[in-house]
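Hey, resending since the last one bounced:
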Amino acid sequence: MAADVGSERPAGIATIGVVGAGTMGAGIAQVCLGAGYRVLLYDPEAAARESARARIEAGLARWEARGGAPREPFSASDARGRLALVDSLDAVAPADFVIEAAVENLAVKVDLFRALGARCRPEVILTSNTSSLSITALAVASGRPERVAGMHFFNPAPVMKLVEVVRGLPTDDATIAAVVALAGALGKEPVVVADRPGFVANRLLAPLLNEAFYALEEGVADARAIDAVIRLGLNHPMGPLELADWIGLDVLLAILEALHRDLGDPKFRPCPLLRKYVEAGWLGRKTGRGVYDYPPRA
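The C-alpha cells again:
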C-alpha cells in the first residue's frame, strides 16, 4: 500500500548508519546528507570508501549547482561535514537508524544483521536495501526481529522517488511507521509491501529484463533494436538492456537466482547469456562494459 507521509523528521533520529559503500550505499548516504542527517558510512574496503566519497562529493556539488538538495536548507559544505567514513561495524554503533546496502547475498547480510544487532542500541531500527532477499531471515538474525524492515531504494538513489518499505513477518507497526516517516523526511515516496521474493518492483521487472537477454541470445534482434522497441512501443524511458546495465548485471543475476530459488517458477531462470556477461566481469555501467560499452568517467 502507498503510505501517507509528510515531510516531518521522525523524532530521535539524527545519525544514520549506512552499511556498504557501493553504488547504492553511496547514493543512500548522499540522500541522507541532503536531508540534514549525519551519516556513518561503513565499508571494510578502503578503496570502496574513497570511491564512495568521490561519488558523494560529485553528487553534492551537482545539487549545489542546481540550487539545493530536495530537502532544504542545503549547503554542500555543511553536508560534507556531516559525513564520516568508518572502517568497522563498531563505529556504526552510535547510529540512531541503520540502512544496510551490502552485496546482494543472503549469507553476507545475515552475518551483518547478527553483528549489527549485537552492537546497536536495542531500540535502533535496522533496515536492508535488499532488492529480493528475505527480510524475515534478516530480522531473526538480528535478535530484534520486530525492529527490522526492508527499505529498498532504487538506482540512482538521489534521483528515484520510490522506496519499497518491506514488512517482515515479525516487523511491528511502530517500525513500519518509523521507516515510512524517515523515507518521507528523505524526500521519498514510500510504498509498504509484504516480504515476498522480489517484493513488487523486481518480481515484475526482472522477468522482463531476463526475457530481453533471451531475445538477444536467440538473435530475435540486436540490443539496440530490442531497447528501441520497448522505449518507443511501450513508452518506457529506458530499454530493458540499457536498464540492466544501469542496475548492474551481477545484481540482476542475483535477483533472478533468488526468485528462481524461492518461487521455483521456471520463468525466473536466468538467461545463460546474462550469466556469461557476469562471468566475464561485464557488469554494466559500473565496470565500463555490459551489453553496451561506456566511456570512462571524467
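The radius of gyration is 19 Å.

Sorry for the duplicate.
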